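Researcher: Here's the sequence for the chain we discussed earlier.
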Amino acid sequence: MVTPVEAAAMLAAALMGGVVARLAVPTRWTVLAAGPWTVTAALAVVAARMGAYDALAVEISSRTIIAAVAALATGSWAGSIHLADLRGLTYRDRYLAATGSTAGIILGGAVLFQADLSALRLVWFVIAPVAAALLAAIGYFVLGLVYTDALTELRLAGLYTLGAITLDGVTSAVVVEQLGGTQTGMVTMALDRLAGMVGVDPYLWALLPGHVFVGMAFVGACGWVNRQSNAVGLLFALLGSIAVLWSAAVLLVATVLLG
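Model: Thanks. This is the structure I predict for it:
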Protein backbone atom coordinates (compact mmCIF):
# COMPACT_ATOMS: atom_id res chain seq x y z
CA MET A 1 0.00 0.00 0.00
CA VAL A 2 1.30 3.44 -0.94
CA THR A 3 1.53 5.91 1.93
CA PRO A 4 0.73 9.63 1.51
CA VAL A 5 4.44 10.48 1.74
CA GLU A 6 5.31 7.95 -0.97
CA ALA A 7 2.48 9.23 -3.15
CA ALA A 8 3.65 12.83 -2.77
CA ALA A 9 7.23 11.91 -3.67
CA MET A 10 6.13 9.85 -6.67
CA LEU A 11 3.85 12.65 -7.85
CA ALA A 12 6.70 15.15 -7.59
CA ALA A 13 8.99 12.85 -9.57
CA ALA A 14 6.32 12.30 -12.24
CA LEU A 15 5.62 16.02 -12.57
CA MET A 16 9.29 16.95 -12.85
CA GLY A 17 9.82 14.09 -15.29
CA GLY A 18 6.99 15.46 -17.42
CA VAL A 19 8.57 18.93 -17.38
CA VAL A 20 11.93 17.54 -18.49
CA ALA A 21 10.30 15.42 -21.21
CA ARG A 22 8.92 18.62 -22.74
CA LEU A 23 12.23 20.47 -22.48
CA ALA A 24 14.86 17.95 -23.54
CA VAL A 25 15.53 14.79 -25.53
CA PRO A 26 18.04 12.31 -24.05
CA THR A 27 21.45 12.36 -25.68
CA ARG A 28 24.44 10.06 -25.37
CA TRP A 29 25.79 12.32 -22.67
CA THR A 30 22.52 12.21 -20.71
CA VAL A 31 23.03 8.48 -20.14
CA LEU A 32 26.40 9.16 -18.53
CA ALA A 33 25.23 12.29 -16.70
CA ALA A 34 22.52 10.31 -14.90
CA GLY A 35 25.17 8.13 -13.24
CA PRO A 36 26.02 10.46 -10.33
CA TRP A 37 22.35 10.91 -9.46
CA THR A 38 21.85 7.12 -9.60
CA VAL A 39 24.67 6.59 -7.12
CA THR A 40 23.25 9.39 -4.96
CA ALA A 41 19.91 7.56 -4.83
CA ALA A 42 21.72 4.38 -3.77
CA LEU A 43 23.58 6.26 -1.02
CA ALA A 44 20.31 7.77 0.19
CA VAL A 45 18.75 4.30 0.51
CA VAL A 46 21.78 2.99 2.43
CA ALA A 47 21.65 6.05 4.69
CA ALA A 48 18.08 5.09 5.57
CA ARG A 49 19.26 1.61 6.55
CA MET A 50 21.82 3.28 8.81
CA GLY A 51 19.02 5.20 10.56
CA ALA A 52 19.85 8.61 9.13
CA TYR A 53 16.17 9.59 8.87
CA ASP A 54 14.90 8.09 12.12
CA ALA A 55 14.49 11.53 13.69
CA LEU A 56 11.91 12.54 11.09
CA ALA A 57 8.28 12.53 12.10
CA VAL A 58 7.23 10.34 9.16
CA GLU A 59 8.37 6.92 8.03
CA ILE A 60 10.71 7.12 5.06
CA SER A 61 10.61 4.06 2.80
CA SER A 62 12.97 3.14 -0.02
CA ARG A 63 10.29 4.04 -2.56
CA THR A 64 9.96 7.49 -1.02
CA ILE A 65 13.72 8.02 -1.16
CA ILE A 66 14.02 6.87 -4.77
CA ALA A 67 11.11 9.06 -5.87
CA ALA A 68 12.45 12.05 -3.94
CA VAL A 69 15.92 11.74 -5.49
CA ALA A 70 14.33 11.28 -8.93
CA ALA A 71 12.37 14.48 -8.37
CA LEU A 72 15.53 16.32 -7.33
CA ALA A 73 17.47 14.96 -10.30
CA THR A 74 14.83 15.87 -12.87
CA GLY A 75 14.29 19.19 -11.10
CA SER A 76 17.99 20.02 -11.37
CA TRP A 77 17.87 18.96 -15.02
CA ALA A 78 14.93 21.27 -15.76
CA GLY A 79 16.52 24.06 -13.72
CA SER A 80 19.82 23.75 -15.59
CA ILE A 81 18.02 23.96 -18.93
CA HIS A 82 16.10 27.05 -17.79
CA LEU A 83 19.21 28.80 -16.46
CA ALA A 84 21.10 28.05 -19.66
CA ASP A 85 18.25 29.59 -21.66
CA LEU A 86 18.23 32.70 -19.47
CA ARG A 87 21.95 33.18 -20.03
CA GLY A 88 21.68 32.52 -23.75
CA LEU A 89 23.82 29.39 -23.44
CA THR A 90 23.45 25.96 -24.97
CA TYR A 91 22.45 23.41 -22.34
CA ARG A 92 25.05 20.74 -21.65
CA ASP A 93 24.44 17.45 -19.85
CA ARG A 94 27.49 18.09 -17.72
CA TYR A 95 25.28 20.44 -15.64
CA LEU A 96 23.14 17.44 -14.67
CA ALA A 97 26.27 15.44 -13.86
CA ALA A 98 27.66 18.31 -11.77
CA THR A 99 24.59 18.61 -9.57
CA GLY A 100 24.43 14.84 -9.09
CA SER A 101 28.13 14.64 -8.25
CA THR A 102 27.78 17.43 -5.69
CA ALA A 103 24.84 15.72 -4.01
CA GLY A 104 26.63 12.36 -4.09
CA ILE A 105 29.85 13.71 -2.59
CA ILE A 106 28.00 15.40 0.27
CA LEU A 107 25.80 12.38 1.02
CA GLY A 108 28.64 9.90 0.51
CA GLY A 109 30.87 11.81 2.90
CA ALA A 110 28.13 11.83 5.53
CA VAL A 111 27.53 8.08 5.11
CA LEU A 112 31.23 7.23 5.38
CA PHE A 113 31.56 9.46 8.44
CA GLN A 114 28.75 7.52 10.14
CA ALA A 115 30.16 4.09 9.22
CA ASP A 116 32.65 2.17 11.35
CA LEU A 117 34.76 0.05 9.02
CA SER A 118 38.34 -0.77 8.11
CA ALA A 119 40.20 0.75 5.17
CA LEU A 120 40.56 -2.74 3.70
CA ARG A 121 36.82 -2.98 3.04
CA LEU A 122 36.87 0.37 1.28
CA VAL A 123 39.20 -1.11 -1.34
CA TRP A 124 36.22 -2.96 -2.82
CA PHE A 125 34.81 0.42 -3.90
CA VAL A 126 37.79 0.62 -6.26
CA ILE A 127 38.22 -3.03 -7.24
CA ALA A 128 34.61 -3.63 -8.32
CA PRO A 129 34.25 -0.65 -10.72
CA VAL A 130 37.71 -1.19 -12.23
CA ALA A 131 37.07 -4.88 -12.87
CA ALA A 132 33.64 -4.11 -14.33
CA ALA A 133 35.13 -1.41 -16.59
CA LEU A 134 37.75 -3.82 -17.96
CA LEU A 135 35.11 -6.45 -18.73
CA ALA A 136 32.88 -3.84 -20.35
CA ALA A 137 35.71 -2.54 -22.52
CA ILE A 138 36.45 -6.05 -23.80
CA GLY A 139 32.79 -6.77 -24.46
CA TYR A 140 32.22 -3.44 -26.21
CA PHE A 141 35.24 -3.98 -28.43
CA VAL A 142 33.92 -7.39 -29.48
CA LEU A 143 30.42 -5.97 -30.01
CA GLY A 144 31.86 -3.26 -32.22
CA LEU A 145 33.46 -5.92 -34.43
CA VAL A 146 30.21 -7.79 -35.01
CA TYR A 147 27.62 -5.01 -34.82
CA THR A 148 28.80 -1.48 -35.47
CA ASP A 149 25.41 0.17 -34.84
CA ALA A 150 26.03 -0.08 -31.10
CA LEU A 151 29.17 2.02 -31.42
CA THR A 152 27.94 4.48 -34.01
CA GLU A 153 24.59 5.08 -32.32
CA LEU A 154 25.48 4.93 -28.60
CA ARG A 155 29.25 5.46 -28.43
CA LEU A 156 30.32 6.06 -24.80
CA ALA A 157 26.73 5.67 -23.63
CA GLY A 158 26.83 2.07 -24.85
CA LEU A 159 30.10 1.38 -23.07
CA TYR A 160 28.72 2.90 -19.88
CA THR A 161 25.52 0.84 -20.07
CA LEU A 162 27.50 -2.34 -20.62
CA GLY A 163 29.69 -1.34 -17.67
CA ALA A 164 26.65 -0.99 -15.42
CA ILE A 165 25.63 -4.56 -16.29
CA THR A 166 29.11 -5.99 -15.70
CA LEU A 167 29.27 -4.05 -12.43
CA ASP A 168 26.15 -5.94 -11.35
CA GLY A 169 28.05 -9.19 -11.87
CA VAL A 170 31.28 -8.13 -10.23
CA THR A 171 29.48 -6.59 -7.26
CA SER A 172 27.34 -9.68 -6.72
CA ALA A 173 30.40 -11.93 -6.82
CA VAL A 174 32.30 -9.70 -4.41
CA VAL A 175 29.37 -9.51 -1.98
CA VAL A 176 28.59 -13.24 -1.95
CA GLU A 177 31.96 -14.88 -2.55
CA GLN A 178 34.30 -12.43 -0.80
CA LEU A 179 32.27 -10.56 1.82
CA GLY A 180 29.91 -13.33 2.92
CA GLY A 181 26.69 -11.66 1.80
CA THR A 182 23.63 -13.39 0.43
CA GLN A 183 22.00 -10.85 -1.90
CA THR A 184 22.82 -10.27 -5.56
CA GLY A 185 22.09 -7.67 -8.20
CA MET A 186 19.10 -7.91 -10.53
CA VAL A 187 20.98 -9.24 -13.57
CA THR A 188 22.87 -11.78 -11.48
CA MET A 189 19.63 -12.91 -9.88
CA ALA A 190 18.11 -13.54 -13.32
CA LEU A 191 21.19 -15.41 -14.55
CA ASP A 192 21.37 -17.46 -11.36
CA ARG A 193 17.73 -18.48 -11.74
CA LEU A 194 18.33 -19.39 -15.37
CA ALA A 195 21.29 -21.54 -14.35
CA GLY A 196 19.15 -23.18 -11.67
CA MET A 197 16.53 -24.07 -14.26
CA VAL A 198 19.10 -26.14 -16.13
CA GLY A 199 20.35 -27.77 -12.93
CA VAL A 200 23.55 -25.73 -12.44
CA ASP A 201 24.57 -24.02 -9.18
CA PRO A 202 27.26 -21.66 -10.48
CA TYR A 203 30.14 -19.96 -8.71
CA LEU A 204 29.16 -16.30 -9.15
CA TRP A 205 32.50 -15.31 -10.61
CA ALA A 206 31.76 -17.84 -13.37
CA LEU A 207 28.62 -15.89 -14.32
CA LEU A 208 30.62 -12.83 -15.43
CA PRO A 209 30.82 -13.94 -19.09
CA GLY A 210 27.03 -14.17 -18.96
CA HIS A 211 26.84 -10.57 -17.79
CA VAL A 212 29.08 -9.49 -20.66
CA PHE A 213 26.86 -11.35 -23.13
CA VAL A 214 23.65 -9.90 -21.67
CA GLY A 215 25.19 -6.44 -21.74
CA MET A 216 26.31 -6.82 -25.35
CA ALA A 217 22.85 -8.03 -26.36
CA PHE A 218 21.09 -5.17 -24.55
CA VAL A 219 23.42 -2.48 -25.89
CA GLY A 220 23.19 -3.95 -29.38
CA ALA A 221 19.40 -3.87 -29.18
CA CYS A 222 19.46 -0.25 -27.98
CA GLY A 223 21.74 0.65 -30.89
CA TRP A 224 19.38 -1.00 -33.38
CA VAL A 225 16.31 0.70 -31.88
CA ASN A 226 18.05 4.06 -31.88
CA ARG A 227 18.87 3.72 -35.57
CA GLN A 228 15.21 2.95 -36.33
CA SER A 229 13.75 5.63 -34.06
CA ASN A 230 16.02 8.46 -32.98
CA ALA A 231 16.60 8.82 -29.20
CA VAL A 232 14.36 5.86 -28.28
CA GLY A 233 17.33 3.51 -28.01
CA LEU A 234 19.12 6.08 -25.88
CA LEU A 235 16.09 6.28 -23.61
CA PHE A 236 16.17 2.49 -23.15
CA ALA A 237 19.90 2.65 -22.40
CA LEU A 238 19.27 5.48 -19.91
CA LEU A 239 16.54 3.64 -18.03
CA GLY A 240 18.33 0.29 -18.12
CA SER A 241 21.63 1.69 -16.88
CA ILE A 242 19.88 3.58 -14.06
CA ALA A 243 18.05 0.48 -12.83
CA VAL A 244 21.06 -1.85 -12.96
CA LEU A 245 23.56 0.68 -11.57
CA TRP A 246 21.24 1.57 -8.69
CA SER A 247 20.80 -2.08 -7.77
CA ALA A 248 24.56 -2.76 -7.87
CA ALA A 249 25.43 0.42 -5.97
CA VAL A 250 22.97 -0.27 -3.15
CA LEU A 251 24.24 -3.84 -2.88
CA LEU A 252 27.92 -2.91 -2.76
CA VAL A 253 27.63 0.13 -0.49
CA ALA A 254 25.28 -1.56 1.98
CA THR A 255 27.41 -4.70 2.21
CA VAL A 256 30.72 -2.88 2.60
CA LEU A 257 29.43 -0.37 5.13
CA LEU A 258 26.88 -2.44 7.04
CA GLY A 259 28.13 -6.00 6.51
